[in-house]
Design brief:
The protein is α+β, with helices and mostly antiparallel strands and 269 residues long. Helix content is 32%, strand content 26%. The protein has an 8-stranded mixed β-sheet, with helices on both faces. Strands 12-11-13-15-14 form a 5-stranded mixed β-sheet, sandwiched between helices. Strand 9 and strand 10 form a beta hairpin.
Length: 269
C-alpha cells in the first residue's frame, strides 16, 4: 500500500492517466459510433474501456479507496480516507470526431481535500501533474501561470454545457461580455486541458458553468499549485460539487469577477 501522501498519490495518478491515455491513443483516428447520453452528450467504447482499466487498477493497488467516475458513478468504500475522481476521456465529442484535443483526468482527495492531480493529453503526450505543496509540472518541468494583468491583453477560454440548446440565455451573455473585453476567447471542448493550459500560461483565465466534479478536479489542483486562483463566479470558495468555476492567473481575477457580476446584474444567473 502506498502511504497517504500527496506526492505519492500524484505519482500514482500520473501512472494511471498514462495507462488510460494509451487506450485513447489507440482509438484516435478511427471511425467511432458514439452513444448518446443526452442530446449532445456522447460516450464511446473508449470512455468505457479507459474507465474499466482505471477502476481495475485502483481496486488492485488501493482496495480501501473510494472512486467517483464519470461513466459508472460513485464506488463507495466504508471508512475510506481517499477518493479518486476520474474522467477517463474528457473531450469525448472531440475524440468522436477525431479532433485532437482530449485527455484523461485523475484527482485524489485525502480526507475530503483535493491534494493531487494528473491530466494527460495522449495526442501531444503532455503530462500535467501536481501535488499539494509540491508545485505543478508539465512533463517534469515546473509550471507557472502567466503574468498578464489586463483583460484586454488576455486570452481566455470557456466551454458550453450540454444544455446550451435549451438555455442559451444562461451561457451566451457571459461569452459576449468576455468576447468584447478580452484579447481573445477560445472554446475547445475539454475543461481539464483548459485548466492545464491556464496553469502553464497558454491561457490567462477560464470560466464555465454546469461542470461535473470529474471535469474540474484534476485541473484545479494543477492550477492552484501553479500559482493560479480558483473560485466560484462570485469569488467565493470553489466547491467540487458547485458546478461552476472561475479560474485565472490571479492578476485578472477581480476583473473577470466584475464582468460576470455585470452580466448577473442584467438578469442572467
Amino acid at each position: 500500500m502506498i502511504p497517504l501522501d500527496p506526492a505519492r498519490l500524484r505519482d500514482a495518478a500520473v501512472e494511471l492517466a498514462r495507462e488510460a491515455g494509451a487506450i485513447l491513443r489507440q482509438g484516435f483516428g478511427r471511425a467511432h459510433h458514439p452513444e448518446h447520453k443526452g442530446r449532445i452528450d456522447l460516450v464511446t467504447e473508449y470512455d468505457r474501456r479507459a474507465e474499466k482499466l482505471l477502476l481495475e487498477r485502483i481496486r488492485t493497488r488501493f482496495p480501501g479507496h473510494a472512486v467517483l467516475a464519470e461513466e459508472s458513478g460513485a464506488h463507495a468504500v466504508p471508512g475510506s480516507t481517499v477518493r479518486w475522481i476520474i474522467d477517463p476521456l474528457d473531450g469525448t465529442t472531440n475524440f468522436a470526431h477525431n479532433y485532437p484535443f482530449f485527455g484523461v483526468s485523475i484527482a485524489a482527495e485525502l480526507e475530503g481535500r483535493l491534494v493531487a492531480g494528473a491530466v494527460f493529453d495522449p495526442v501531444r503526450e503532455e503530462m500535467f501533474s501536481a501535488a499539494e505543496g509540491q508545485g505543478a509540472t508539465l512533463d517534469g518541468g515546473p509550471l507557472r501561470v502567466s503574468d498578464v494583468e489586463r483583460l484586454e491583453d488576455a486570452l481566455l477560454v470557456t466551454g458550453f454545457p450540454y444544455d446550451v440548446r435549451e438555455h442559451p440565455e444562461l451561457i451566451l451573455p457571459h461569452f459576449h461580455a468576455f468576447l468584447v473585453r478580452a484579447q481573445g476567447v477560445r472554446r475547445d471542448g475539454s475543461a481539464a486541458l483548459n485548466l492545464c493550459y491556464l496553469a502553464c500560461g497558454r491561457f490567462d483565465g477560464f470560466w464555465e458553468r454546469h461542470l461535473s466534479p470529474w471535469d474540474m478536479a484534476g485541473g484545479v489542483v494543477i492550477v492552484r499549485e501553479a500559482g493560479g486562483t480558483v473560485t466560484n463566479y462570485t469569488g467565493g470558495p470553489w466547491r467540487l460539487e458547485g458546478r461552476q468555476i472561475l479560474a485565472s492567473n490571479g492578476r485578472l481575477h477581480e476583473e473577470m469577477k466584475s464582468v460576470i457580476a455585470s452580466v448577473a446584474t442584467s438578469g442572467v444567473p
